[in-house]
Amino acid sequence: MREHPDWLQRLPNGELAVSFSNWGYFDRDDYRWGDISSPTWCLDTDHPGAQAFMADIVSDAVRAGWRYLKLDFTYSLSTARRAVNRSRTVMQSLRELYRLFREAAGPDVIICACIGEMGRYALGYADTARLGGDIGADWSALARNLKEFLPRLCVNGCWWNGDPDVFFMRAENSGLSLEESWVLTGTIGLIGGVFLTSDFASQWSGEAAQRVRHFWNEIGPALPSGHYAAYDTAGRIAALRVSSGKTHRIGLYNWDDAVRSVRVPLSALKLGESLPVKSVFPDDVRVRIERNELVAIGQPGRSLRIVQLCG
User: 110 in a domain, yes or no?
Assistant: First the structure.
């Protein structure tokens, strides 16, 4: 800010247009993070000097050996700013920004657009994109974020590989039980997009590692050819269907605190016929089809069970 104040987004009266507090500032003299309440200001992405600065950061990272770049807060472009290039819309400015990133990174580097929405401006330049906000390490935040990003699955595998944020199965300091963590991990695995963790594998219990290996194996998560989410009367996701040909995997959710039997009509999953149940994971719950309903008997509270049906 001191060296290039003209690179920052500013209002017509000269005041800074975008300011927020996140991690604080990094003090290069003391080599430490400063006060977290310190504001963060955003560059005007149309300014030639700012563009060259950002391109240098990306190309320097690639030269240092990085092959996965997560680009965060790139959406922070104010419509009230005094635009450097007034011939461009915000959409055009953001698209130009991602073109700059791709050219600086080269064709073989994975770019994650951490935008948390279905932002069309990154199309063709980003390989993956965040579908929602940061996953919180408590049950209410997790449930809220799942409800937010699951309806955005329509772009997963079409525009880019969807990134729901990281999963965690560690017991220590996660704020989630094993079952609650599996709701997150199992859902991300079913989606078949980006499957990343913030854990060290050494933090997983034997049971947690077994559940992670359901997806983290030689085959890995696979992008489905089709998917569909069924909701209950309370507006919660009752089941998530992901399909590949005649094979369907169904995630059955129990959002309640107590054990209960989960029942989902096959018609709610857009399945027109009863198919045999091939497997259940974890297999501690009995699942059957009765009267054209998929029924998980005695499913634990705050849990997910994955059922495979094959035609």
Answer: yes
User: Exposed, middle or buried by CB within 10 Å (0-12, 13-18, 19+), for 179?
Assistant: middle
pLDDT in tens, 246-290: 899 999 999 999 999 999 999 999 998 778 999 999 999 999 999
Q: Supply the mean pLDDT for the chain.
A: 90
User: Residue 171 and residue 180: Cα distance in Å, rounded?
Assistant: 11
> Strand 110-114 vs strand 128-130: parallel, antiparallel, or unpaired?
parallel
Give the CATH number of the domain where residue 266 resides: 2.60.40.1180
What is the identity of the amino acid at 75? Y
Domains contained in the chain, number = 2
The pLDDT of residue 22 is 64
Helix ranges (DSSP H) in the chain: 48-63, 90-105, 139-149, 178-191, 206-212
Q: Quote the CA–CA distance of 238 and 300 in Å, as a whole number.
A: 14
Half-sphere exposure of residue 274: CA atoms within 13 angstroms, side-chain side: 9
Is residue 221 assigned to a domain? no
Placement of tokens 């799942």 in the chain: 146
The whole-model pTM stands at 0.87
Question: Residue length, the chain?
Answer: 311
Q: Which of 95, 130, 165 is the last residue of a domain?
A: 130
∠199-200-206 over CA atoms, to 5°? 95
Q: Among 97, 130, 163, identify where a domain stops.
A: 130
Which range is most confident: 91-105, 150-164, 225-239?
A: 91-105
Q: How far apart are CA 75 and CA 42, in angstroms?
A: 10
Instruction: Give the structural domain span for 305.
Output: 226-310
Report yes or no on 261 lying in a domain: yes
Calculate ∠ Cα 292-301-237, nearest 5°: 55
Tokens in use for 140?
């209410």
Separation between Cα atoms, residue 213 and residue 190, nearest integer Å = 13
∠ at Cα 223 (219, 226), nearest 5°? 135
